[in-house]
Design a protein that fits this description.
heterodimer, A: about 725 residues, alpha/beta, 6-stranded mixed sheet, 22 helices, about 30% helix, disordered N terminus, B: about 240 residues, alpha+beta, 4-stranded mixed sheet, 7 helices, 12 strands, about 15% strand, disordered C terminus
Chain lengths: ~725, ~240
Amino acid sequence: MKSKITRRRFLGATATASAALAATPALAGPKSHPPAWRGTERVDEIATTCEMCFWRCGVVASVVNGKVVRVKGNPEHPQNQGRLCARGNAGTRLLYDPDRLKTPLLRTGERGAGEFKPVSWDEALDYLADKLLKLRKEHGAESVAFFPHGNGARFFATLMKAYGTPNSAEPSFAQCRGPREVGYSLTFGQGLGSPEPVDLEESKLIVLIGSHLGENVFTSQINAFSTALSRGAKLITVDPRFSTAAAKSDWWLPIRPGTDIALLLAWMNVLVGENLCDTEYLASYATGFDKLAAHVKQFTPEWAAPITDLPIDKIRETARAMGQAKPAVAVHPGRHVTWYGDDTQRARAMAILTALLGSWGRKGGIFLPTPVERGSFELPDFPDSARGRADGAGTRFPLAIEELGVTNGLIDATISGDPYPIKGWIIYGQNVLESIPQPARTIEAMKKLDLVVVVDVLPVDQIQYADLVLPEATYLERYDPPTIVESAKRPFVAVRSPACEPLYDSKPGWWIAKELAKKLDLGDFFPWKTPEEHLATLLAPLELDGKTLLNCGAVSFPGQPYLEDKLPEERTFDTASGKIELYSQDLADIGADPLPRYTPPAEPYKGFVRLIYGRAPMHSFARSQNNAALHALMPENEVWFHPSVAMTFGIANGDRVALENGDGIRSDPVRVRVTEGIRSDCAYMVHGFGQKSKSLRRAGGRGASDNGLMSQVSVDPLTGGTGMRVNFVRPVKA
Amino acid sequence: MVTDLRKCVGCHACTVACNGEWDVPPGEARTRVRMTPLAGSFPELSSSTYVAQCNQCDHPPCIEPCPSGATYQDATGVIRVDQDVCIGCGFCIEACPYEARHISARTKKVDKCDFCAPRIARGAEPACVSTCPANAKHFGDLEDRTGDVHRMVFHDGARRIESASVAPGPNVFYLGDDAHLDLVQASFPPRPPRLITAGETLKRLFKPLVIGVVGLTFLGQAVAFFTQLHKGEGDFDE
């Protein structure tokens, strides 16, 4: 079933760059960072962009004699304004991690045995070019799949397109925010992009649904959150666990996992039934209100209470609080939203709630991106792929965004050979064993391949399945394409430029991609000689020279974040109707629910509890566990159980147990935290631990992997997103 | 200093920034983020973050027990440890009600927060204040009636963490609602100074002395050895 919905409308905010910026860029007084002196020692202050997570805060690296001695927040950067989280502050510990990959490595033993020999870059790239040319000749270019993540991946993305494969997929879609982008696009005609433009700072009421701000730390978002709370904003937190945010809440709703849509429908029922919607806004901008009103009439708080395990009066009270605070209500759309397989519908419900409160494009709600123009290179035409994508984006998963792709779709195709055989994987900046569920399937797929290449900084578990490992320079040692953030109240352009020379025999991604392109006879797709030239071309339309940007790290422009900033005739939505679509004809046309409906999630097996997972503020995904400073703060994760569950299983606080899931898969030993701060029908772990690689001397063998226990997924039929909160565990003797 | 616990999310940025600023090895900290135990039972629960550091007390209990005179109060009221004089005996650690001092594995001497005195001297804020993503930490002159800190303490009700029996006049104040601050107070009460026996005193005083003498004997050889060992080595992690 091919979607009739145009792809254009499903692009996130960051991809809406075609429109030119109306205003002439007025620079926000950028200042260069002059060198400082420590006695007679010269300290160079290099402005660049952090990559300890993906939020891309501005940092200043202090460099003495070629060594980065400290990384601080860049006060000139419009996003974090000099502030920086624990991970950002620990940047030098990644740069100088002695466990880093140091030279290219070529596999010598069986795949999976982790036996390699060091080779030169010339040997490595010759080997890779030969393999890629052979695969293209024998199986077609589409037989090679690309797994990217991060800004630096864009050079490889160009290379893979030039090589001729459309098969690229990152977990930021099907394992993260994909259903959110699609659900909001269906409603408002555009997704949210990253960073998500939530106007927390100006909000009078913040609604967090499974979002654990505080443990999930993005510096600017935390700043806005804290600012709002100190100004007296109210907070509703819906979470089965007593999170840091729950502890700051006016209302903590410890919902039964998987029943969020029921709560959202009941909230809508109260808003509609008690005339608490922003009727003027809806009359101007929305369609489908009558159908929605008729739909939610049946979903009363009385109906939702037994489903959600929440008191009727709390449901009603929180809905009224929203109605009173509207339109300055920030219903946070969340980020990692692939939970139960009906996630696009839950995102739709959250988008509709936002619309009913008149919060989209309004102060204190969700603000609007401002397009920023960017330059481009004159490149040869990219080859067309006759066979189309293998991941199901646009076909099997009709609403998946092709630009982001469906990782699990590529894994399925690699295992099954359907729609055609996949023979090679190139993995850049993502950890396929930690970020994609069902790791046993991922390993099965990798074992079938003729070529596995990993470009990474650290020897994470996946490298043992690689034929070739290419050591990339860290973010502090390399240039990356400029960060252009449109989803900010003041949109900005920022740069990542090297603070020091790459250590060991590591190379920046741009160099690797460009050199490989030469060997593949695709050098014309890289028509720039230096990173400075690359930067200058991309910045050309902004009348901004690269040097200014390199000096100050970031330059911001005036934005138009609210609907009222636009002329009345410009206040349109990129949907079929040109309005906010409360009722989605697009969904009806592909046989999906045009209005969100609650479907019960699979119940935990008897004697098991549901495994839920999240973040800790000192770690990013599975990337930071080997960082000396961050490891010292949190060397391993714990599993949280309610006291009643602990009693049932006869375990106590501090015990070490293994977790066994419904398929009999066991985790590594993990310490138990017995706490009242979690419901008795679930267990909680922080994600990213339980890595096995002995080459990660700090992280290896510490804690347990939540991802390892995810042998079940509930796949969202609309987007391919892998719902992961459908795995059930019980503690067993470690 | 005022730490606004309503804003603090317990992200540990302060700790890591401080460690980076003063080359404090991982695992040690001049400022630490802690979480109170949960109060109440499901679903009526309460908890708070707490950021612990040296309180630069008005009546510092750490000065008097210091046998070498290394710990002193400077002209601005900040408690400093003269690293050239400290013998690492740790008596001040026992005396501190806030567990804000530790022996540095790097220097074998006492290390603690000094409100980033060298940064303050050049007009910068303490590193933890500059980096705090939540903007939860505020530094300023308590006497300055126009400043944020004065307002927070005298108008917004920022509180000291002290008890009837242990009240050294700490100069880190905490903002928050009463219930949360009561929980912090109950969870991390200031500790009465510990009594140290005469025998323990002698042991501690002589240990550094003995180490010093033995150390000096081998110093020349050790320097030569390590110089050789580290020659050309670029690895300075830990």
